[in-house]
Amino acid sequence: MSNSDYYSQQAHLEKVIAGKKELKKELIRLSFPEKIKRIIEMQKFSRDFAKDKTKKIYVWTMESLAKG
Amino acid sequence: MKTLFLYLKEMQSMGLISSYALGGATALVYYFEPVQTQDIDLFIVLTDKKDSLVNLSPIYSYLAERNVELKNEYVIVEGVPVQFLVPYNALVEEAISKAVEVDFNGASIPVPPIEYLMAIMLQTWRMKDRSRLEELIKNQDLFDSKKVLEIAARYSLEKRWGEFQI
After folding, report:
1. A36 at B interface, C-beta within 8 A
2. Integer-rounded Cα radius of gyration of chain A
3. Residue B5 and residue B107 in contact, taking contact as beta carbons nearer than 8 Å
4. Which of A40, A42, A46 is the closest to B78 by Cβ?
5. B118 FRET partner, CA 20 to 30 A, in A37, A53, B87, B129?
6. CA distance linking residue B9 with residue A29, whole number of Å
7. Cβ–Cβ below 8 Å for A36 and B26
């Protein structure tokens, strides 16, 4: 990996982290019923995911993250 | 969920329970971001305390009469298991007594102040409690640190709280 590739990946990851922090702030500001709805959705997703025999997991690689 | 909260209010007015409050991660979520949790904890204080054994059957009977889905000790609301718990120590009792009514789509539900929820996490001290406390500490504007220390000190938890101080 070249230096410029490395710095481009770093810059993108910093952007991703900043985006996550912003998302956290937005989630904290949600109304209480909306937050409960999210919990119920998370529960449903976990249940469905556990039942799904054909489940596939896609993982971003550092390279694909850097490309955006 | 709103229906369950309305039922709780009715159970209180019928005298089945004297008070109640949301607990665990769901109560924390009122102040914080939504987090994954296995179930929703609801603390209930029973009116009938004559017997030293905890008897939740009047609660379950009341819910069964209203066709609420029951599975083992859980009440299933919108597919999510809700567990009724009785306060198991003085800190939890105090947290319930300090709970404030929070609006939920026109129904209300008491939620303990965040400082009490943090003190309970210091007491239960499981891996997930420590991890949630770590996250909360990063958001100091959400709680009153002096208040957490005051509660922690009264329940001999100040040493654990000290571990989170920067």
Report:
1. yes
2. 17
3. yes
4. A40
5. A37
6. 27
7. yes
ipTM here? 0.75
Q: Give the CA count within 13 Å in the CB-facing half-sphere of B79.
A: 13
Establish, for the pair of chains A and B, how many residue pairs have beta carbons separated by less than 8 Å.
49
Min Cα distance B26 → chain A (Å) is 7
Tens-place pLDDT, residues A28-65: 999 999 999 888 888 888 888 778 777 676 767 767 76
Q: Name the 3-class secondary structure at B108.
A: strand
**If DSSP codes are grouped into helix, strand and coil, which group holds residue B156?**
coil
Q: Are B5 and B101 in contact (CB under 8 A)?
A: no
- Residue by residue, DSSP assigns A16-68 as HHHHHHHHHHHHHHS-HHHHHHHHHHHHHHHHHHHH-TT-------HHHHHH-
pLDDT exceeds cutoff 70 at B77: yes
Q: Does the beta carbon of A35 lie under 8 angstroms from any beta carbon of chain B?
A: yes
Strand partners, B71: B74
